[in-house]
Structure formats: C-alpha cells, structure tokens
Amino acid sequence: MPYQLDRTEIQSLLDEIAGRMAGEVDRGEVANYIPELANISLNHFGIAVAPLDGPPLLAGDADLSFSIQSISKVFGLVVALDLVGATLWRRVGREPSGDPFNSIVQLEFERGKPRNPFINPGAIVVSDLILQNAENAKKMHSVLDFCRKLAEDPEISVDEAVFASEVATGNRNRALAFFMMAEGNIEGDPATVTEHYFRQCSIAMSCSQLAMATRFLAARGKGTADGKAGVSPERARRINALMMACGCYDPSGEVAFRVGLPCKSGVGGGIVAVAPGRGSVVAWSPGLDDKGNSVLALKALEEVALRLNWSVF
Ligand code: GLU
C-alpha cells in the first residue's frame, strides 16, 4: 500500500521531539577548530520535514540559519557531476573512509585519490573539477546558486565571518590540496581550490531551507516544479547510496544502523536525512559528538525514522 502522508501526525511528532530536545542535558560540544563556529549557543535545536509536496513542516529553531559545512559537499558533488559526468570517479572513490573527514594519512597510502566525495579531500577535488570546468562567471558561485535554485530562495548566502574564519585556520585542508597536487589529483592553484571549498562550506541555511534543497533526493531527482534544478532518478539513487555509506564521517555505518536513511552531516551541527519517496528531514543542533556528528540531530533523526517507519530497511 502506498505510504499515506499525514501532515498533522508529522507536525505533532516534530513538536514533541523539539520540546523534548529543549530539556536534553547531554548536548555535545560545538566545533571550535573553526573559531567562528564556536560562537553559537548549544541550546539551539531545529527540525524540518519536507514532504514531496507542499511546504515543509517545522519545529524549534527550524527557521534559524546555521553553517551547513560538510552538507555542502552533496551540492558540490551534484554541480561537478553535471559538469564532468562519470569521469569524476577517476579522481574520487566511492568507499567509506573509516577515518576522520580531514585525515591526511589515508590519502598518502592511497596515492592522493580520496576515498569518497564526502570527506574533505574528496570535496576539495570536487571543487577543483568545478573550477576547471565551469564557465568563468559561474566558477565561485555555482554551488550557492544551486542551493538557491533548489530551495527556491535567492536570499541564501555565504556567512562571510565563517568564511574568513575558515580561510584563517584551514591549513590542514590546504595541506590536503597541496598533497593531492603532488600526486597529480589537483589541477588548479591549491589556494584557489581550497577557497572555493571554504566558500561552499560557509553557506548558511536553515533546516527549512535545507529540507527544501535536499528534497529532490527523496523525489527521484525531481527538484523545482519548473524543472530548473534537479538530477536524473539514476543520479539521485547513487547520491543517496553514497550518503548512506559515507555521509556521516567514519561512523557512517553506525548512523545507517540507527537511522536507516541516507544522511549527510556537517560540523555546524546539521544533519540531512533522505527518505526516498517520502521526503527529506533536516535536524540541527550545534553540539557534536567526538566524531563530528550533532548529538541531538542524530537522536532526533533516529526517532523520526522509527516513529514514521521511514527507514529504507
Ligand atoms: N569546513 C569544514 C572543514 O573543512 C567542514 C568539515 C565538516 O563539516 O565535516 O573542516
């Protein structure tokens, strides 16, 4: 029997979860290796569900913007695949890393080919591909434009303070780019490539905007109603597969076990989950666990998947 979406049922679940999360004591720690990210209060919690049709359902701080960080790697990947197609996979793998997102040691063993596009070196190669292949005017703006189109919101923008903070402290990412250049896997200037990567990480969006911007992955690739943004069903299926295997850093397997949905998280505390054929879910709370996933967002997604019976398994 096709799934019957009951908006009232979902809304009351989201309200209940947001109410409970407000009282949670164990909220993790904010990321402080990017100094600007440390300025945010641990008390925030927001959640949004974007069903395949209609406006998103929201609770808590679902309308507050936060730094999407690694979630931008999904949008970057789509932009690069649009530009270069499957040749992208010559330069980036499709395996979970089992290592931290900014690991250098793995890259050395594997001769500069990142395990997947959702760890930092993989996303840096993706940025290189965008810069080498996009038309001049679009080079620095393509990922942001794509987010705006998908969310149908031209106001979405880069948080310049976070961007400046990443530029000031991002030497590890620059090291990854230089190392990959030495191995022949970065073609452009590593400083410009990492700047592009920092810019996309610094895009600020709310749970509500992110849920709308990722709903195409639940809708067999169908983005906006006018067809201006989106991907083929085949591509959506594959991006979901990568998110399931690699979207939440080295504990991606644990997240698949607990949530049972393709997910992508970022150190800003957001996590996107895709329920194919049903909708997208975004939860946000800035406190992270020791692997970089938001403690409360993960808990909330686990509960949504369980209570709505949305796990793909
Ligand atoms: N901009 C962050 C970094 O490069 C992204 C990390 C993340 O969200 O996983 O370290």
Short note summarizing the structure:
This protein has twelve helices and eight strands. By secondary structure, it is α+β, with helices and mostly antiparallel strands.
Describe the model.
The chain is 43% helix and 10% strand. It is of the alpha+beta class and 313 residues long. The chain has two domains: 164 residues, Beta-lactamase (3-Layer(aba) Sandwich), CATH 3.40.710; 132 residues, Beta-lactamase, CATH 3.40.710. The strands form two sheets. Strands 2-1-8-7-6 form a five-stranded antiparallel beta sheet, with helices on both faces. A three-stranded antiparallel beta sheet has the order 3-5-4. The radius of gyration is 18 Å and the shape is globular. The model has no long low-confidence stretch (mean pLDDT 94). Glutamic acid (GLU) binds next to loops.
On the 0 to 100 scale, the average pLDDT is: 94
**Structural class given helices, strands, pairing?**
alpha+beta
Instruction: Supply the number of structural domains.
Output: 2
Main beta-sheet strand count, sense and barrel state: 5 strands, antiparallel
Tell how many strands the DSSP assignment holds: 8
Rg (C-alpha, Å)? 18 Å
> Unreliable stretches, pLDDT < 50, 5 or more residues?
none
The strand line-up of the biggest sheet is: 2-1-8-7-6
Secondary structure topology:
Layout: H1 7-22, E1 46-51, E2 57-60, E3 66-67, H2 72-84, H3 105-109, H4 120-133, H5 142-151, E4 157-158, H6 160-169, H7 171-182, H8 190-201, E5 203-205, H9 207-214, H10 233-246, H11 252-258, E6 263-265, E7 270-275, E8 279-284, H12 295-307
Antiparallel strand pairs: 1-2, 1-8, 3-5, 4-5, 6-7, 7-8
Helix pairs in contact: 1-12, 2-4, 2-5, 4-7, 4-8, 5-9, 6-8, 7-8, 10-11
The chain binds glutamic acid.
Glutamic acid (GLU) binds near residues 69, 166, 201 and 266.
